[in-house]
Design a protein that fits this description.
Blueprint lengths: L15 E3 L1 H4 L4 H12 L4 E5 L5 H15 L3 H5 L9 E3 L16 E6 L26 H26 L17 E7 L13 E4 L5 E6 L5 E4 L5 E3 L7 E5 L1 H6 L9 E3 L7 E8 L6 E2 L1 H5 L10 E2 H12 L1 H4 L1
Length: 321
Amino acid sequence: MSYAEAKQVSSDVIPVIDITSLRDGTDAETVARQLHAANTGLGFIYIKGHGIPNELITKTRAAAFEFFRASPKNKEAVRVSKSHRGWIAVGGAKMEDDAKPDLKESFVWGYQDKTGNMPDDHELRGENQWPTFLPNMENIAMEYFEAAHLVAHCLMQGFALGLGLERDFFLQTNDAPLSRASMVYYPAQPEAAGKDQFGVGAHTDFGVLTVLCQDDVGGLQVQDINGEWIAAPPIENTLIVNVADLLSRWTNGAYKSTPHRVVNRSGRERLSLVLAYDPNPETMIDARDVFGPGCTPENPPITCGDYLNWRFAKAFSHKKA
């Protein structure tokens, strides 16, 4: 498979940042400066010291593989709802209007309270669908969601400090977030699929922040500032985090939301665990709140909820139906 090549680059192009001293408060300012520099550069970062136990990652991956290897009949019972919860089959998503649908399956779930309930206040909010043939799936998935959400909270605090804001600036409306998590399964991509077929086509992420736990298979590629594609290979015991479109809008373009794609040329199954962090739907995204009333926003203010409704309607077939 000779298409979609990506250049191998030195480790400083996508920096590796240890956030331990941000998490424990011993030296938050130094980490905040490092995060700020990375976000105003490529917008992709490897994170060490994230605090998610390896045991939790391992059991979440095992549950995901058990789900995706199950029969279509079993998975069909939790087919994705209009509120974007459940199983998305191959062909259910594409990132550009003129692209082929992505060659992947996903299982999506989101925030719920300790009793399993969630607010009914947005189109991307609905009951999580848990497969009955995997009785432990809910507990495992929600444990991972909460752990990854803590990482996102910590990073958002670091971003705020890096911008000279109060530590909790980005977390003021966060008691019922619109965050979603996904188990994403990529089959080995056959060469016959063609040069315009991707596991995930080139795109930028929709919301505020993405926290990605990739496996050892590889295939993630990032577009650099010169338009060249570079490899973002797995690094043991790290996560990859990247600025998404809504955070770039919130920071008036200072933080970069960078195109990326996945090509699974390994001949093996590939699995990623993804948290898409977003605050409450009523959260106003206005660059003037970040930079002051003298700032001229590149985009008009919009709520997080309204923005995500617009983006999801363009990308997912179940939202268009």
